[in-house]
Amino acid sequence: MDLYHLKTFFTLGKIQNFTRAADHLRITQSAVSHAIKKLETSIDTALINRKNRDLILTDAGKILFQSCEKIFYELEKIDQDLAVLKKQKQLTIRVGATVEFGTTILINHIREFLDRFPDIHIDFLFSHHLMEPLLQDFVDLIIDCKPHMVKNLEKIYLFQEQYVTIASPAFIEKMQITALDDLGQVRILSLDKDLDWWHNFITAIPPGKQACLKNVMQINHIRGIINGAIAGLGIGFVPRYTVMGELEKNILVDPFPHITPAADDFHIFIKKERLGIEKNRRLVTYLTRLAPLKNFFQ
After folding, report:
1. Which of 5, 81, 227, 287 is least buried, going by the fewest C-beta atoms within 10 A?
2. Do 153 and 270 sit in the same domain of this protein?
3. pLDDT tens-digit profile of 237-255?
4. What CATH number should be reported for the domain holding residue 31?
């Protein structure tokens, strides 16, 4: 089997799309198709079920894909080890994280790691959709609060994220917000119209009070929700760490301090093979022992 054909097949198997796989490999779509056909011919076995509209691997394709995972991650590990031995280049780690945590916390605590390991370079992807980039190897690891249950992933606990309702003191006084029922007369600032963003708050209040959250203003960024609350647009719901300064200065207050919303658990997710690569282990160890994170969230 040709190694180039195997790499093309492996990339296609991860990305599940001919056009995007071609873009990732920087070749044409026809070159991808040609490589797959050559590979199938060389082993006299179909690897892709072409009867379906979606790209689906045959049973043989699944077996070969699993073998490719071991082969190419081991080759990557060898390449990294040789690079360290020769000291020829920096090693790159691609890190994915949720937008607000990544931009406000992670980015402010990564310099110590880079100073400690000058041979390592880090690139960041901040997004609310992290699993696909991880599975397709666009990032080496992600930090996320969603409960991903995917085979072959290591899940490493980091911290628990607390939430808080927020409003400006002037807004609370003007609207006379004193009880949950008062939410029915004000705007609810949310990342989505269906209030999935408010789930941790909704599950913490009595069922009979949940219907009062009805006048929803969608603001698709946490910083927008925070600024909207400061501007008196309504009541927001955000991770507590994002508004610590505003709460301390009384720019924002929690209108319902007696309610404790459910918390989210943040984990590092990384493929088991990638955790075996030294550069990734260094970063995972650093993040799990990072005192500022523990102190900040707990």
Report:
1. 81
2. yes
3. 999 989 999 999 999 999 9
4. 1.10.10.10
